[in-house]
Design brief:
Blueprint (H helix, E strand, L loop, with lengths): L1 H20 L66 H4 L4 H4 L53
Length: 152
C-alpha cells in the first residue's frame, strides 16, 4: 500500500512540474492568417458588410443532386422559432398560390417513420437548416467544384 501511495505522489509531483514548465499560450498567430485577412487572430475584426441578395423571383440552378433549393430573396428579420415560421406565410400549401411562391415539398410532411402528417414535420420545420439565401459574396478560398452535368 505504501508503494502505491508513493507512486501516486510521484506521478502528481511530476505532472505539476510539467505543467509549470509548459509554454504559456500567447496572443500571437504564429504566422497563421485568417480568412478575415487579419494578421492577429486575437483581435476582433469588424463585421463584414451585408451582402446583396438577388431580386425576388430570380431562380438559382441546382449544383448537385438533392440540393435543397436556394432562397432567392432576403430573409433578414424572418422569425423562425418553435412557435412561428415566417417562411410558411408564403410557402405553405394554403398560401403558396395566392402569394405566387413555390409550395413546400410533400417530403416536408413525412415523419421519420414515413407517415404523412397534416402539418410540416418537426424535423423539417426549421427551413434554414437546409435552405440558404444566395448572395453576391465572393468565395473565401479557391474552389474547383463543377456542377453535375445532368443538372445543366
Amino acid at each position: 500500500m505504501k508503494k502505491l501511495i508513493g507512486a501516486m505522489l510521484a506521478c502528481l509531483m511530476a505532472g505539476s512540474l510539467m505543467a509549470a514548465e509548459a509554454p504559456q499560450a500567447t496572443t500571437e498567430s504564429g504566422g497563421v492568417k485568417s480568412l478575415r485577412n487579419s494578421a492577429d487572430l486575437a483581435v476582433e475584426a469588424p463585421a463584414a458588410q451585408m451582402k446583396n441578395f438577388r431580386k425576388d423571383g430570380d431562380l438559382y440552378t441546382r449544383q448537385y443532386m438533392h440540393q435543397p433549393p436556394l432562397i432567392p430573396h432576403d430573409i433578414r428579420n424572418y422569425e423562425i422559432d418553435k412557435k412561428v415560421n415566417k417562411c410558411l406565410a408564403c410557402h405553405s400549401f394554403k398560401n403558396a398560390t395566392a402569394m405566387k411562391a413555390p409550395k413546400i415539398s410533400p417530403t416536408h410532411f413525412e415523419s421519420r417513420d414515413g407517415l404523412t402528417l397534416g402539418e410540416v414535420s418537426p424535423r423539417r420545420y426549421f427551413c434554414l437548416q437546409c435552405h440558404v439565401p444566395q448572395t453576391d459574396a465572393k468565395p473565401l478560398v479557391d474552389n474547383t467544384f463543377k456542377p453535375v452535368d445532368a443538372l445543366n
